[in-house]
Amino acid sequence: MNTRDLEYFIALTEIKNFSKVAYKFKVSQPTITFALQRLERELDSKLILRSRGHNLAITDSGEQLLLHARAIIKHGQLASSEIKHLKDAKLRLGLPPTIEDRYFAVVSTKLKQHGLLNKIEAVELGSAATLTALKNGELDLALLGSINPLAESNITSEEFDRRPFAIYVSKQHRLANGNGVYFKDLKHEDFILFKSGFIHNQVISSMAKRSHFRPNVVFKSSGIHSIINMIRENVGIGFFSTLMSDSNSDVVKVKLLDRDVPQFVTSIVYRESHQFNQLQTEILNQIRAALI
Question: Does domain 162-262 sit in CATH 3.40.190.290?
Fold first, then answer.
């Protein structure tokens, strides 16, 4: 089965016009027609029907092929990316900011001791965005945060820590000297949160929904230090996992008293399909030695 034929077929199901598909791929319209005919002969089934008004309808067989065609193309692209990067004398490591802030010092120390620190290409994204990049082959390995243990198909995770979420406030804030707070009692507070792509946003949305209010978000940032500085100045309160509590004395951690507060689980994560070369395997083992 020709992967180019599959690409034409996928585009036909989306654009539903032979001429426009041909224009997209810069080929003639008969090229698209012949590609569809080859697939239909090979599968002995009609995949796309053309009505008198030139409208296209995907058959049940076509819908079934579409599921597999997209997977085939995606795996082909992933294989090409993985093979290309195996030749590099680097390991692309995903590092969400809160995890980098907490753990990378000990990891970097271990890697430097073995002459491997300069072999790391660090990519800083939120945990949700990091997972997407890992799945797409843009990363070889990640230190990843998840809500409770990570359960993703085709992904291997090695958990090394877990901590609850908490509220963080200025030393001048009314909650700074308390013993804890229920999330529902934060209804009138101003929040400073991460931008999209961070697992924290999923957790706070879930807790807010459970408490029947929408948080008043006054600012969003991708930088943890920027958020901490704003919390310190009492611009608003923050919502983080308790990873960062020991390394940031400028703000006060306030325990959430709610039952079943989600856990922020940190893991070493990589694709099951990724074949680590010798250098990457050595880096992975040293990261394991530092964290697990």
Answer: yes
What 3 state SS string does the chain have?
CCHHHHHHHHHHHHHCCHHHHHHHHCCCHHHHHHHHHHHHHHHCCCCEEECCCCCEEECHHHHHHHHHHHHHHHHHHHHHHHHHHHCCCCEEEECCHHHHHHHHHHHHHHHHHCCCHHHEEEECCCHHHHHHHHHCCCCCEEEEEEECCCCCCCEEEEEEEEEEEEEEEECCCCCCCCCCECHHHHCCCEEEEECCCCHHHHHHHHHHHHCCCCCEEEEEECCHHHHHHHHHCCCCEEEEEHHHCCCCCCEEEEEECCCCCCEEEEEEEEECCCCCCHHHHHHHHHHHHHHC
What is the reported pLDDT for 77? 79
Q: For residue 232, what pLDDT is reported?
A: 94
pTM: 0.73
Q: How confident is the model at residue 11, as a pLDDT?
A: 93
Right CATH number for 91-161+265-291 from 3.40.50.720, 2.60.120.620, 3.40.50.970, 3.40.190.10? 3.40.190.10
**Tens of pLDDT, residues 82-138:** 677 667 778 999 999 889 988 999 999 999 999 999 999 999 998 889 999 999 888
The answer to whether domain 91-161+265-291 and domain 162-262 are alike in fold is: yes
